[in-house]
Amino acid sequence: MHKLYSILVIILICTAGCTTTYMVRVNGFSEIDEPIKDKASIYVTVDPNSQNPIFDNQIKAKIEMLLKSHGYVPAPDVEQADYRLAFRAGLDSQRVTGYTSLHRPFMGFHNRFRGDYNFGYTTYVPYSETIYNQWLIMKVFSAGRTAASEAGQVVWIGEAMTGTGDADLRHVVNYLLVAGFEFFGVDTKRQMTLKISPEDPRITQLATFR
Prior knowledge:
Shape: globular
Distance between the termini: 48 Å
Radius of gyration: 24 Å
Largest sheet: 7 strands, mixed
Number of strands: 7
Structural class: alpha/beta
Strand order of the largest sheet: 3-2-4-5-6-1-7
Oligomer: single chain
Number of helices: 4
């Protein structure tokens, strides 16, 4: 048992030393034929009932930065905007249990009758971990009368989600934003999966943005 515990500790140490690449699933929906027009002005609104308006304002600032990088113009108020963008981000958790294989090497031997070699065996150990489903939804409307209003035609809806062992939404939201803007204003027709590395310059820029 002590030997098995030591092996598991080594595996966890090695895993902790690796940088995390996120697999983000993205869906884009649109009911109109026209895409969001080029160089359009877009007002980004924050939910007035947000439980964490400080965090939401940080997300808003990052969205505005990404809008600029995609050729759009963040509008200072809704009256000057062609479109209005509303967003929500959140985290749900679930407990996962099961068994994982563990190869345990030992001194090998040779079977001279069958001509094969054996250098170890595989055992299965139980595991339990918490998976965090982190998600971001962005909705683009034709500009309504007020920033908080849901009035106006829906132009586009984008959904981004990833499942990870990282419970820090303020970190993972950078990956959700980058993935969502890969298909901004586009109807993807199906769920797309993106692999995003922490070395991606867009992630680096968002991580250092305040």
